[in-house]
Amino acid sequence: MDDANAVDVAGVPASTLNLIDLSSSDIRRSVSLLKQACLDSGFFYVINHGVNQDLMEEVFVQSRRFFGLPLSEKMKLLRNEKHRGYTPLFDQVLDPANQINGDYKEGYYIGVEVPEDDPRAQKPHFGPNLWPSEDILPRWRQTMEKFHCQALNVAKAVTRIIALALDLEADFFEKPEILGEPIATLRLLHYEGLVSDPFKGIYGAGAHSDFGFITLLATDDVPGLQICKNKDAKPLKWEYVQPMRGAFIVNLGDMLERWSNCIFRSTLHRVIGNGQERYSIASFLEPNHDCLIECLPTCMSEENPPKFPPVQCQTYLSQRLDDTHADLNVYRSEGA
């Protein structure tokens, strides 16, 4: 089977997305399916990716344990300037033009673990993580680090197929100057059992496109993710992306759209709450801090010159994060 069955949820159609089997030996078929998905919706599923189902389920168990802690305990791990740690409700505003408060979600950022005395920790998105106490959440750090590492391996496998789909060598993105020391971030997400109301500006997560290279998303069985394939349509038309047990939902980020000169799409998406609690685990893959994102040679011509100026990864990512997250001084003033 190459796509998922479309199912109507609460009157909103569900999208039919291609399935990419990472265990398949038919690489030509995988490239074809991925390329079609990247041209059409910028979203697809990957299956048989090598991450054990027991591990995926344990990550969700541990995530629920953390978000079930009292708010006072979670706030002790409030995110820092490196975007490590806990993000409370409304900390992020992804669609300020249409949201009244911010995203009705809480999250937890885990990045590449770099000791404070390591010179790399001077970079904006590297540094030590914030970890809950083993006394409170035993095995939590071990579980998250294991999953973080394995999800990164899956993401790199997907980049090989993307490279081939862009008429590049399979290992193009794995060059030391691109993914030698990537900014790889795991984000645990919890949506409260709230019913969203777009007409009143209430969303689980506001409409946005992801900032970086690619995103892998593992979800529970509660629907909520919606995509808009044509962000220029009036009005916007939304489709649900159905949860799929054991699969990753993969979507392209803005950096890949810039790299590909808009040939591949970074698609608008949002989360709509239906009254049920929902948990998801996002794995974001971005290039090295100093990687220059500029139009790929296979994606430009005299008729189709580069649409974006070159930009350094850390500059672009830092700006997008700063634009969408609350100023940390807000929390400091509240605690004063």
Outline the fold blueprint.
Blueprint: E1 19-21, H1 27-40, E2 43-47, H2 53-67, H3 71-75, E3 85-87, E4 105-110, H4 140-165, H5 176-179, E5 183-191, E6 205-208, E7 214-219, E8 225-228, E9 239-240, E10 248-252, H6 254-259, E11 268-271, E12 278-286, E13 292-293, E14 311-312, H7 313-324, H8 329-334
Parallel strand pairs: 1-2
Antiparallel strand pairs: 2-10, 3-4, 4-5, 5-12, 6-11, 7-10, 7-12, 8-9, 8-11, 13-14
Question: Number of helical runs?
Answer: 8
The CATH class label is Mainly Beta
Distance between the termini: 57 Å
Task: Give unreliable regions as ranges.
Answer: 3-9
Global Rg: 19 Å
In the CATH hierarchy, the third-tier topology is known as: Jelly Rolls
CATH superfamily: B-lactam Antibiotic, Isopenicillin N Synthase, Chain
Instruction: Estimate what percentage of residues fall within beta strands.
Output: 15-25%
**Lateral arrangement of strands in the main beta sheet:** 1-2-10-7-12-5-4-3
CATH architecture: Sandwich
Order of helices and strands: EHEHHEEHHEEEEEEHEEEEHH
